[in-house]
Write a structure and sequence with these properties.
five-stranded antiparallel β-sheet; five-stranded mixed β-sheet; Arc Repressor Mutant, subunit A; 48% helix; 2 domains; globular; Jelly Rolls; alpha+beta
């Protein structure tokens, strides 16, 4: 498939090795100025800001950049930055297979709320009491990744898991107070099923069947926790993928409609207009114009 939007893998960003990049953020940013334009990653990506201002856009959702904020991204998400002034912190990029040989559960990372692809769960402000601990973890990671120690990669993996668990504890404290664990697990299972099947399975009742619950139960769960019905959760994921594909100018709208399994182009256009408020062509034009005007 031809592609117009850059898709970066780790080896295109570093000469060191293909599975891991750990760095302070300011030198990384200096080396990769072009990353302020919209791009996709083929790897997991996280940044902890210690200094910074401006904004970033993750999957077409704009969020402010501020000190002591950490964000996480999964492969396939679309991203760009619009920083103001000096920015610093820490960055880790790691490949999909990086943990697979290390962990018995291949999908272990998906258990973390910030590795779901849901932007609101992936941008976390670190409270003052925990900021020094998180900085220390990143400093230890940089030291370990730069020294040629025995079993260095495994030590890095262990330290990264410590970082993930520490941040997850901070981010999940408020969630767990409001959502019963069973409901949270069920919702995550629904979201994972959507992620695997959204091009083929479009109806809430089909997902309810896979989860061994009634469609009413699934709807009530989504309304209670997310404030929207189950059908809207599915449609939002399809619309997000349509947006990701539309910024690739080499794909026609018809090709995108086919890729997302719509019966025809006009049905896809009606669906997109209802979800996004613009036709696919209007969205593509608006996004391209915004890119050019922001980065002249």
């Amino acid at each position: 498939m031809k592609t117009a939007i850059p898709i970066y893998d780790i080896c295109s960003l570093t000469q060191r090795q293909d599975d891991l990049l750990i760095s302070r953020f300011a030198p990384y940013l200096k080396s990769h100025r072009n990353l302020h334009l919209a791009h996709k990653h083929s790897f997991y990506h996280l940044v902890f800001f210690t200094k910074g201002d401006g904004s970033q856009t993750i999957d077409f959702q704009q969020v402010p950049v501020k000190p002591f904020q950490i964000y996480f991204m999964i492969p396939g998400q679309v991203h760009n930055w619009a920083f103001k002034g000096e920015v610093d912190g820490y960055i880790i990029n790691f490949s999909v297979p990086f943990f697979q040989s290390f962990l018995l559960k291949a999908n272990y990372l998906e258990e973390f709320p910030f590795f779901t692809g849901i932007v609101d769960d992936a941008v976390i402000d670190i409270p003052a009491a925990s900021q020094q601990k998180i900085i220390s973890l990143f400093e230890d990671l940089i030291r370990e990744s730069e020294e040629p120690n025995v079993l260095a990669d495994d030590m890095v993996r262990a330290m990264m898991l410590q970082l993930f668990i520490s941040v997850a504890r901070l981010s999940m404290t408020t969630v767990n107070k409001t959502i019963p664990p069973y409901n949270y697990t069920l919702l995550r299972s629904f979201q994972k099923l959507i992620e695997k099947n959204y091009t083929l399975i479009k109806l809430p009742k089909q997902y309810a069947e896979l989860l061994y619950i009634t469609p009413n139960h699934l709807n009530a769960l989504c309304n209670d926790v997310l404030g929207i019905p189950a059908g809207e959760v599915i449609r939002n994921r399809v619309a997000l993928e349509a947006k990701r594909l539309l910024i690739n100018n080499d794909l026609t709208v018809l090709e995108i409609a086919n890729q997302l399994n719509f019966a025809d182009n006009s049905y896809f256009t009606r669906f997109f207009k209802k979800q996004v408020g613009l036709t696919p062509e209007e969205f593509r034009k608006t996004t391209n114009n915004h890119e050019h005007s922001t980065h002249k």
